[in-house]
Amino acid sequence: MPVMETENSNTSRAEQLKQQANDAFKGHKYSQAIDLYTQAIELNSKNAVYFANRAFAHTKLEEYGSAIQDGTKAIEIDPRYSKGYYRRGAAYLAMGKFKDALKDFQQVKKLCPNEPDASKKLKECEKAVMKLKFEEAIAVPESQKRLVADSIDYHTVEVEPQYTGARIEGDVVTLDFVKKMLDDFKNQKNLHKRYAYQIVLQTREILRALPSLVDIVVPEGKHITVCGDVHGQFYDLLNIFELNGLPSEDNPYLFNGDFVDRGSFSVEVILTLFAFMCMCPSAIYLTRGNHESKSMNKIYGFEGEVRSKLSEIFVELFAEVFCCLPLAHVINGKVFVVHGGLFSVDGVKLSDIRAIDRFCEPPEEGLMCEALWSDPQPQPGRGPSKRGVGLAFGGDVTKRFLQENNLDLIVRSHEVKDEGYEIEHDGKLITVFSAPNYCDQMGNKGAFIRFEAPDMKPNIVTFSAVPHPDVKPMAYANNFLRMFS
After folding, report:
1. Between the N and C ends of the chain, which has fewer C-beta atoms within 10 Å?
2. Which DSSP category does 65 fall into?
3. Distances in whole angstroms, Cα of residue 422 to Cα of each of 262, 405, 429, 460
4. Rounded Cα distance, 56 and 374, in Å
């Protein structure tokens, strides 16, 4: 076949694949869309549209690093293609890189001066950058900061006579109180600030006393349940408790990070988890996720929700308590549980994780960052992260880490999975994700894992989403981010 005919045939086939990818995207099948766009790119790598479309699909899967790469490629192919700048700018925005995003949206405006949408989005981006500059200008140096937690005495907060919600009598959080609070939350009633302060401050005291890596002992004949991301999906959290029982000393849970953001019932989720910890610290264990951080909470809704349901002072208080969360757990010396994944160097020992000074916002590199952000990859070795933070690690990395630390299994979360879980790396690594129909659009199941001592074999239970009140995900997120999603 002549070269010209082959090129025409490839171009035509690439267009068909693009159309199939677009259809998959509309059906929220983002991974499938990425595969199809990739096939189209392999046939015709000079079409900027394919890269920009694939960037959008990556953004939907929170693979912002890959989205930035694809946006950049689209711009290289056609420097006047506004969608390339738009997609890359949206990915920068989702990562909190407002200044980079602003440059891209300025370029969009230059290329489409009469496009009202471009002007609107540029204005929102400019506002975000101005706000950031203002916050940086008035920020108090860390060394001079006085902790908000140290300035609050919850005993002095008055409870109005007309308040009919759950009450803590004295200083002890009881199961009766927690049950009443859950009923109130189910009916969309807020907890009084006095009791919210008490729960958050008491949880802080418990967490501060823990090491950065916590050892959990499950006695023979007993069990523990590990859950992944909940992301503010309170009604799905209640469903987990319906299916598997409430947390207690005999029915302990480990929630593996990303309790908040995205879902619009994050305040209810975090107060529920904290209240159970206050009631019985051995009933619930909590790992820090990448969304237990100021930068994420500012963008993805938790900060706005806290302001709306509690008050401004709680924004800082939660940030302080999140800095006390442990970074990983080891169950019965055999199962390593961490939110994100493994590290950019070999030879990391459990003692190295235990020694991390975690009482800070997550840094952009190093062991703490990687524990919160990394993802597994199918190929061996290490590679760049699709997210643009942390890294991707292969089965050989998993195997060495387990051998060096005399462990059997890694359980991590951090990634939405169609079935609520995925087993990788020769069965040595399980991803568990507990937010079904994530963001009301992914159609995935949720899952949790029960481990029974002494054999500690993972028993995976999957479940579907349950209805929730008509409050959309990201309802409290920054307006500028909602505009780009």
Report:
1. N
2. H
3. 22, 23, 8, 10
4. 21
Q: What does pLDDT average to over the chain? A: 94
Sign of CA dihedral 178, 182, 183, 184: positive
Q: Which residues are catalytic?
A: 291
Tracing tokens 């390593």 back to the chain, one arrives at 336
Q: From 124, 45, 132, select the one nearest 90 (Cα to Cα).
A: 124
224 within 8 A of 250, measured Cβ to Cβ: no
Quote the DSSP letter at residue 326: -
Contact (CB, 8 A) for 178 and 295: no
pLDDT band at 485, cuts 50/70/90?
Answer: low
**Cβ pair 89, 117 in contact under 8 A:** no
* CA triple 244-234-208, angle to 5 deg: 85
Tell me: pLDDT of 473 over 60.
yes
Nearest to 195 by CA among 177, 179, 207: 177
| Site of tokens 């659009």 | 441
Structure tokens at 410: 């890694």
- Sheet with 223-227, edge to edge strand ranges: 284-286, 253-255, 223-227, 446-452, 458-463
pTM of the shown model: 0.94
